[in-house]
């Protein structure tokens, strides 16, 4: 297994490098000059040029990229053009809130999807099944920004049950938990549909297996048959989907964090793109890419845990 | 009984004064009869973070307001934006030839660090602005400086190579602030991101990028401008700027009290917010900023003054302004707010009234004949123009462009609208890839904008019209070196006449800076200086 992990990590290097090249190129090729953002729209060209020099942006692009790459290898992603703090320091600050949001959203989505999926499979064809399907499709079809704003309007603004926006602290504190609920619901809502459908389909297939009939024939209680014998074996494809969705959630966090004023990587990425704070955007893109690769690796390793037949 | 004696006048005058005071207190926005209460944190919402807190290195509007909290200026702009009053300088005089200004400084001022403020600090800050290495876009505000002398600790003598009629107005600009030399030297190029410090009413506490910024009351502060009731220290303990990028979320927060005030309210929401419980919409009066449509006169098509005039006449500016501001504003008659110093009212009759028939006739005469699809053609070229607009910052412009497009199509002008986020917008302007653009720029004086827009020295930015005219340059120079207010006004009025007659810009509507503000915020009056709204916050306090 150790060798397998090493192989996967090595294989991830070209992926991350590719992401770095692409993000660097895209940022520098889109119109918008960080020096103009700092100096202001009405600054004369010579003032902009002086600021550009101060920010180290006068060197040719390939030189800038090579120097960026060289520093990145040693974990130095440069400094923010605005705060002038090391990018790694800024990312460390942003990582916690984003992970908190994504994990909470995933937790909520998985719990809701398992409940709905199992209910749909067990009571297949009933009104409940159809309602669960409809709810899932609805969650998937509604855009995140709309869901977020509606939840804020309804639960936070009209009913004042939750704070409207902002960060309340880590989720294990009461305040932090309170602040996390609405953003997590918003981000998780889109996942429930596909996960519930997947759970339903996989579970239905498993429930038709011989060993389930055997379990029932043994006289096992139905909940034990479904939750222990069936769901355990249905977990494998679900884990794959959840793993893939993790990356999707990181993308969705951009919108959710922006709407909820959540101090994570998503909102910062949007604002940093607008202020052309290139090092911050690159740092975030690389962090997300590494996170995505890491989660996929963890998912692959989890297969072995859930299916003893798989060995690396 | 019939004759009023000196004695009998007194109580009446006193009563009249008291009545006037009461009326003023009742009608002044944010004014309150209650005694100010010290303490509390004022939370200001903002959709975007600032690029720096170094006022010398940026022209960003948002920085001007924050700069006024941290730093002071030699002179200060009154709410009327006409009167320049004392700041760090108690008084000042100029030589008869207008090239030497002597400023007598306060002797009771200290920096946030506790160090005493003296004339050498003024000299150092001004020299920093003038140093090309700083890259300050504000050099011109100081004029052509020959020498800065400090005969003693409380006197600064500014010697200019020529007259600079604008000097006093520009010394009141929040960008020409006195920064703490020691803080700049300590933080080097990071100053502004780290450790911005001056003599202002608030000290810098924390800046978490794209999240929030905290300022704390400077308790030694006693030298605020005379137009504030409270000269210092500030009533508020803290001011926090919270970044909330989503506009709708900002509205919810303002209505629920999560933020006390924010800038950038869209016209469409003003009426609703005025009626919202616990909220009011305060206005900066005057606000010196006008929305306009600009022509890049070096481009084919719009290089012809008749085409520009036709486009101007084809626009129903009154309807456009009413539609996009939801009835809050009508068409601007001139490119500046009527009533500002040096304004030339003659331009109002030059900017054409809506006349589609006249516009078509002008285009016909200019050789642009309607093609098969109605779009005009000349020498095989279609009259297709690129209009650059900003996306995501000025909602009114986003509503404006399709209307403007439709009105111009009606006379056979095809407009391709390119909307882009702010950095891309200015980058594309910088690349010269446009025929028309829409924008609004705040100003301290008529001279400031005329110089920005039309001085050939400012081509390509901020002179985006590319107007290159020796007479305009000469008049701008004459205005700068004018010996009298009349001579200066004459020169500036001539530039306004030239610009209007050549139809370089089309005035659309005057911006009124509106700041939705919670009812518990007292003593707040948005300041129009550089359209910031926020200025030192000395009178502001929070009701429990």
Q: Count of DSSP E strands of chain A?
A: 0
Strand order of the largest sheet of chain B: 8-9-10-1-11
Residues in helix, % of chain B: 25-40%
| Beta-strand fraction estimate of chain B | 15-25%
Tally of separate helices of chain B? 16
Radius of gyration of chain A: 24 Å
**Mean pLDDT metric of chain A:** 88
- From the N-terminal CA to the C-terminal CA of chain B, the straight-line distance is 50 Å
Query: What is the structural class of chain A?
Result: mainly alpha
First-residue to last-residue Cα separation of chain A: 5 Å
Textual characterization of the structure:
The complex is a heterodimer of chains A (312) and B (544). In chain A, helix 5 packs antiparallel against helix 6 (127-141), helix 5 (87-122) crosses helix 8 (174-207) and helix 10 runs antiparallel to helix 12. Chain A contains twelve helices and no strands. Chain A has helices spanning 2-29, 34-39, 45-54, 61-73, 87-122, 127-141, 144-158, 174-207, 210-217, 222-260, 265-274, 278-306. Chain B is of the alpha+beta class and 544 residues long. Chain B is built from 16 helices and 23 strands. In chain B, the strands form seven sheets. In chain B, strands 8-9-10-1-11 form a five-stranded mixed sheet, with no helix packed on it. Chain B has a five-stranded mixed sheet with strand order 18-17-19-13-20. In chain B, helix 15 (470-480) runs antiparallel to helix 16. The model of chain B is unreliable at 1-31 (pLDDT under 50). The chains are: A mainly alpha (312), B alpha+beta (544). At the A-B interface, helix 2, helix 3, helix 7, helix 10 and helix 11 of A face helix 6 and helix 13 of B.
Question: Secondary-structure map with pairings?
Answer:
The complex is a heterodimer of chains A (312) and B (544).
Chain A: H1 2-29, H2 34-39, H3 45-54, H4 61-73, H5 87-122, H6 127-141, H7 144-158, H8 174-207, H9 210-217, H10 222-260, H11 265-274, H12 278-306
Chain B: H1 6-27, E1 41-46, H2 61-70, E2 75-77, E3 84-86, E4 89-94, E5 100-105, H3 119-130, E6 145-152, E7 155-160, H4 167-171, H5 181-187, E8 202-208, E9 212-217, E10 238-243, H6 247-256, E11 261-262, H7 267-275, E12 279-283, E13 289-295, H8 305-314, H9 317-324, H10 347-350, H11 356-365, E14 369-370, E15 376-378, E16 381-382, E17 384-390, H12 395-409, E18 414-420, H13 422-430, E19 436-442, H14 446-454, H15 470-480, H16 485-501, E20 505-510, E21 514-518, E22 521-522, E23 541-542
Parallel strand pairs in B: 1-10, 1-11, 17-18, 17-19
Antiparallel strand pairs in B: 2-3, 4-5, 5-7, 6-7, 8-9, 9-10, 12-21, 13-19, 13-20, 14-15, 15-16, 22-23
Helix pairs in contact in B: 8-11, 9-12, 14-15, 14-16, 15-16
């Amino acid at each position: 297994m150790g060798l397998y992990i090493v192989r996967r990590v090595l294989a991830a290097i070209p992926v991350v490098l590719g992401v770095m090249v692409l993000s660097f190129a895209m940022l520098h090729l889109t119109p918008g000059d960080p020096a103009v953002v700092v100096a202001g729209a009405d600054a004369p060209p010579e003032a902009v040029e002086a600021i550009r020099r101060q920010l180290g942006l006068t060197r040719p692009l390939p030189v800038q990229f090579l120097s960026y790459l060289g520093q990145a290898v040693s974990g130095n992603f440069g400094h923010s053009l605005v705060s002038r703090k090391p990018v790694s320091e800024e990312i460390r600050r942003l990582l916690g809130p984003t992970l908190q949001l994504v994990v909470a959203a995933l937790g909520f989505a998985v719990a809701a999807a398992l409940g709905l999926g199992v209910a749909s499979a067990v009571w297949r064809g009933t009104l409940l099944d159809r309602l669960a399907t409809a709810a899932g499709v609805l969650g998937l079809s509604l855009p995140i920004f709309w869901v977020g704003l509606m939840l804020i309007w309804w639960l936070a603004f009209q009913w004042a049950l939750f704070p409207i926006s902002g960060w309340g602290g880590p989720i294990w504190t009461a305040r932090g938990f309170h602040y996390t609920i609405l953003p997590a619901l918003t981000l998780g809502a889109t996942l429930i549909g596909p996960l519930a459908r997947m759970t339903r389909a996989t579970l239905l297939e498993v429930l038709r297996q011989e060993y389930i009939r055997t379990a029932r024939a043994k006289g096992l209680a139905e909940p034990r048959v479904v939750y222990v014998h069936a769901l355990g074996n249905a977990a494998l494809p679900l884990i794959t989907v959840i793993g893939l969705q993790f990356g999707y959630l990181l993308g969705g966090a951009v919108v959710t964090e922006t709407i909820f004023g959540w101090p994570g990587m998503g909102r910062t990425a949007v604002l940093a793109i607008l202020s052309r704070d290139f090092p911050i955007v690159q740092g975030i893109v690389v962090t997300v890419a590494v996170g995505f690769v890491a989660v996929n690796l963890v998912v692959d390793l989890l297969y072995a845990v859930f299916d003893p037949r798989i060995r690396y | 009984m019939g004759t009023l004696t000196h004695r009998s006048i007194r109580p009446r005058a006193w009563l009249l004064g008291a009545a006037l005071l009461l009326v003023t207190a009742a009608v002044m926005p944010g004014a309150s009869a209650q005694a100010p209460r010290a303490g509390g944190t004022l939370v200001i919402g903002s959709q975007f973070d600032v690029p720096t807190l170094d006022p010398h290195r940026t022209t960003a509007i948002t920085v001007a307001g924050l700069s006024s909290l941290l730093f002071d200026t030699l002179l200060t702009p009154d709410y009327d934006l006409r009167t320049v009053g004392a700041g760090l300088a108690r008084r000042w005089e100029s030589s008869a030839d207008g090239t030497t200004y002597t400023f007598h400084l306060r002797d009771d001022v200290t920096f946030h660090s506790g160090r005493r403020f003296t004339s050498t600090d003024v000299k150092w800050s001004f020299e920093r602005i003038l140093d090309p290495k700083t890259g300050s876009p504000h050099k011109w505000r100081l004029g052509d400086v020959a020498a800065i002398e400090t005969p003693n600790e409380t006197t600064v003598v500014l010697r200019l190579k020529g007259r600079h009629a604008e000097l006093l107005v520009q010394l009141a600009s929040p960008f020409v602030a006195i920064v703490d030399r020691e803080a700049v030297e300590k933080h080097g190029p990071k100053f502004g991101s780290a450790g911005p410090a001056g003599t202002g009413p608030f000290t810098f506490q924390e800046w978490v990028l794209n999240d929030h910024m905290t300022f704390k009351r400077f308790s030694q502060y006693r030298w605020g401008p005379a137009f504030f009731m409270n000269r210092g220290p500030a009533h508020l303990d803290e001011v926090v700027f919270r970044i909330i990028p989503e506009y709708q979320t900002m509205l919810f927060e303002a209505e629920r009290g999560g933020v006390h005030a924010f800038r950038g309210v869209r016209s469409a929401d003003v009426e609703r917010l005025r009626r919202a419980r616990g909220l009011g919409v305060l206005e900066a009066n005057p606000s010196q900023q006008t929305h306009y449509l600009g022509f890049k006169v070096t481009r084919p098509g719009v290089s012809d003054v008749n085409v520009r005039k036709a486009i101007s006449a084809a626009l129903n500016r009154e309807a456009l302004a009413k539609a996009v501001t939801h009835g809050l504003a009508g068409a601007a008659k001139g490119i500046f707010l009527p009533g500002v110093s040096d304004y030339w009212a003659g331009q109002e009759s030059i900017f054409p009234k809506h006349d589609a028939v006249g516009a078509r006739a002008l285009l016909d005469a200019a050789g642009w004949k309607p093609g098969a699809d109605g779009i005009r053609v000349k020498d095989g070229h279609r009259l297709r123009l690129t209009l650059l607009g900003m996306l995501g910052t000025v909602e009114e412009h986003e509503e404006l462009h399709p209307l403007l497009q439709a009105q111009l199509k009606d006379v056979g002008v095809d407009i391709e609208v390119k909307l882009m986020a702010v950095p891309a917008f200015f980058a594309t302007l910088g690349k010269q890839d446009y025929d028309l653009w829409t924008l609004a720029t705040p100003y301290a004086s008529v001279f400031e904008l005329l110089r920005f827009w039309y001085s050939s020295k400012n081509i390509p930015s901020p002179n985006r019209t590319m107007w290159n005219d020796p007479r305009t340059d000469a008049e701008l120079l004459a205005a700068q070196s004018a010996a009298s207010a009349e001579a200066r006004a004459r020169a500036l009025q001539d530039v306004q006449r030239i610009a209007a007659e050549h139809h370089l810009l089309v005035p659309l509507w005057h911006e009124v800076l509106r700041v939705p503000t919670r009812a518990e915020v007292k003593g707040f009056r948005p300041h129009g200086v550089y359209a910031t709204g926020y200025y030192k916050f000395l009178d502001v306090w929070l009701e429990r």
